[in-house]
Amino acid sequence: MFASPTETDIAPSGTLLGLLQRGRGDGWLHALAAPRAEAVAALERCVLHDPRRDWQLEHRSLYYARLYVELGVGLGAVAAHLFHPDDAVRPEEERTGLALSVLGHLTSYGDREALALLRRYAVTGANWRWALDELAVRDDDAGLRALGPEILLRFPHTEEGEAALTAAVRDSFEPRPWHVWAGDPNRPEQRARLGRALEHGDFDRWQRQLRPPGPQPGWSVAAVLDWAREGYEQSPRQWREAAAARCLAAVASPADRGTLLAAAEAGQPAVRAAALRHLAEREEPAVFPLIEAAARAPDEDVAGAAVTAFSRMGGEYALRQARRWAERDDELGSCAAAMLARRGGSRDAPRVLTALLRAVRSRGMDARELRPLVEGAGRLAVGGAVPVLRHIYRETASSQLRGDVARALAGTDPSFTTGFAVECLWDCEEATREVAARCATTVDKRVVERLRRLATDPAEQADVQLAVRGRLGDRATG
Predict the structure, then answer these.
(1) CA distance 422 to 443
(2) Helix (H) / strand (E) containing 213
(3) Which end of the chain is more exposed for a tag (fewer CB within 10 A), N or C?
């Protein structure tokens, strides 16, 4: 089960479980020093109950897989989780995705049991597509070929079954297995069936390109705004703010300025949002009071659209306005502070620091607005931010945010190279390990040994290995 953004089961950062849930390098090191039973229990809890706040952005699978190898942990608990009766009633990817990804990495390390579990789950499991994607990049042709007939049993020889097969082939993340099965010389019926599915999938994509939804050439500004309004009034509601703004960019002329300003001031919510975004992207000076008024609107869609519109502005006028709005304690103020963090100069460092402290105090260690402020503190070299950056590093549950903090500390904290940079070599995030590989002091013997292991690890990312080899090369040449 994934951790909820508001009610989480993330353990305190000072515990072994809390460190492993966060994917911190210190968690890896503490697990090796802890009693093995305690370390195994904490590791299995993380893998079977995914602690990530955003599983599509944060990484944990390689981090946990490496620890499985280091501790010599068996896969009995993972197998029991995958093939539990809950798999039939809770087929969502969140329940099994992390465990399947860990098995994928273990397969890369030569674990035959992990490979067998992936093959078995691909045939019988509810989240079989994820298992098949893991196999697509790790199994050999012979192993995949043997799975073909069993996977195809999921699709009956009916009209609905053939349509489902075409959709599965067309939408597959890793298409290799389908092509292997379509080319199997020993199964002519299977070859013919998959050949049709591949052909129909290509035809479906071609048809989508021929008939794009939405406005067509020749539409007027009024027609585009009506299209945005119609989507908002549909059930279920379609929010067409971004698409309508793109269309307005193609059809609007200077003569339409008055119409667009009026729509941004008092139009129906979707119309107002589209007009605000269009005017903001054109850097219209008159849009600032309209954005400020919309940000106070009781309609959450309109208020959110106002903030989004301002965030897309990039001119000097917007930067000046951001300096006036950065003190606001609302979403528009957060957006203004983020703009200064990304594009401001040294004169804006105090405003960025104030906004960073305010966000931590009022919204906690995992607030959405922290990432641009942390990046800004590093970009502007805000030395006064070091204590709060260290605090965020220790406490945040987001491994992505922790990586941003590590990069900011690398440019602001003189002790980073001998402190956090060392543990970052074991971090779950590739980008964080890369920062550590470039910064961590090689005076520490653990650093040199870790760099050597990363340099030869077949599962390590190319950017990390490039940085690692650069450091080892520099050290060899003195």
Answers:
(1) 11
(2) none
(3) C
Best CA proximity match to 331, nearest among 290, 289, 377, 300: 300
DSSP state of 15: S
Cα-based distances in Å from 464 to 151, 313, 375, 405, 422: 36, 34, 20, 18, 14
CB 227 within 8 A of CB 248: no
Q: How many DSSP H helices and E strands does the chain contain?
A: 29, 0
For residue 361, give both structure tokens: 């105090």
How many residues are there in the chain? 478
Q: How many CB atoms lie within 10 A of CB 214?
A: 13
Helix (H) or strand (E) holding 113: helix 112-124
Q: Distance from CA of residue 329 to its chain's centroid?
A: 27
Helices 93-108 and 128-136, packing angle to 10 deg: 20
Per-domain residue ranges of the chain: 16-210
DSSP state string for 359-370:
HHHHH-TT-TTH
Do residues 334 and 352 touch, judged by C-beta distance below 8 A?
Answer: no
Q: How many whole angstroms separate alpha carbon 310 and alpha carbon 291?
A: 7
C-alpha–C-alpha distance, residues 439 and 367, integer Å = 27
Tokens representing residue 198 in the block: 């591949």
Predicted structure pTM score: 0.89
